[in-house]
Design goal:
It contains 16 helices and 9 strands. By secondary structure, the chain is α/β, with parallel strands linked by helices.
Length: 339
């Protein structure tokens, strides 16, 4: 369903009581009796999973698809490790030199599993119509890091910057086409995950991530299609001046930072979401600890009109549904006490 997403942002900012926003998809496997391997191989199952999650969380602000950060690197030719219970991961690297960077080919849309995920969103927007539907996409530096090796990419920024820029240009070209493919099948937006950039210094983040994020936003974002930015790195507070210039009106942060430190630095016209620990709380906590942490987060940050409570990142596949629902209980409890 088409929506004016800039108006959606304005409405969220204006609402006195915010809806929780969870990066929640993979735990649907528990309700479906399937594995992660099954889910990532089928557009029908992915769309059904998004519908199941939406029905189970009527108070959620949006529906967010699989946050599978192996997908785009696989399309470029990277090797991916699959398991039944965990999200796929990239193994090894395919770019080790300037020559290999120059020779790297930008894949067509549909390479690897990309068409499965595009088709899944096309089907999900027909099933979930009561809230915006967001696709999940990796960010430019995080994709480049998977192609060059995550650790090596950090070093290459100093030692081989031209090679990094070559890979980034190709990664960005692909991501623009990929995001526009989601837009074409009816997605209301994308959540672009750029966690590796969160480990860079502010100047390197601006050069090797922000400048490319700007290109992506300029080439894809319109009134009816929103580009949201996710970064769960531990340097985001120091990087925030650059991050707020990337053109995104929704920023999503991880639990490596204190959200109370971030909120004063985010302009009032930009939504800031975060940042409960996905593993420590949703996966390994209890309903009581999730609810208590949610209330505590709200007490620290809800005085900011642009704050929206969320998980700090994608919620792991085997996280308990009682824990997930306790998040919404915590949001409701806070507002019941403070309205």
């Amino acid at each position: 369903m088409k929506r004016n997403m800039m108006e959606w942002v304005d409405n969220v900012l204006a609402a006195k009581q915010k809806q929780g926003f969870l990066v929640l998809s993979f735990p649907a496997i528990q309700k479906m009796g399937i594995t992660v391997k099954d889910l990532i191989a089928s557009s029908d199952l992915q769309a059904q999973a998004m519908k199941i999650v939406a029905d189970a969380t009527p108070e959620a602000a949006a529906s967010v698809s699989m946050m599978d950060l192996s997908l785009e690197a696989e399309a470029f030719g990277s090797t991916v490790h699959f398991s039944d219970d965990e999200v796929p991961t990239v193994t090894g690297s395919i770019v080790h030199s300037e020559e290999e960077a120059d020779a790297l080919k930008v894949p067509e849309i549909g390479a690897g599993r990309t068409q499965i995920y595009i088709d899944a969103i096309g089907k999900a927007v027909e099933l979930v119509q009561d809230r915006p539907v967001f696709a999940g996409v990796i960010g430019p530096f995080s994709l480049a890091g998977r192609l060059m090796d995550v650790t090596e990419a950090m070093i290459y920024c100093y030692d081989e910057p031209d090679m990094v820029h070559t890979v980034l240009e190709k990664a960005t070209e692909f991501l623009i086409k990929y995001i526009n493919a989601y837009k074409a099948v009816g997605a209301n937006g994308v959540l672009v995950a750029e966690p590796l950039a969160g480990l860079l210094s502010p100047s390197l983040e601006e050069e090797f991530s922000c400048d490319y994020m700007k290109k992506i936003v300029e080439a894809t974002q319109t009134d009816d299609f929103l580009v949201c930015y996710h970064n769960c790195g531990n340097c985001t507070v120091q990087q925030i001046e650059s991050i707020t210039q990337n053109g995104c009106r929704v920023l999503h942060f991880g639990n490596a930072i204190d959200m109370a430190d971030m909120m004063p630095k985010v302009p009032e016209n930009i939504i800031a979401m975060g940042n409960l620990d996905p593993a420590g709380l949703f996966r390994n906590g209890t309903p009581e600890t999730v609810k208590a942490a949610t209330v505590e987060l709200m007490e620290k940050c809800a005085s900011y009109p642009n704050f929206v409570p969320s998980s700090g990142c994608d919620i792991p596949p085997l996280s308990g549904w009682d824990n997930i629902m306790a998040f919404f209980d915590g949001v409701n409890e806070f507002y019941a006490k403070n309205n």
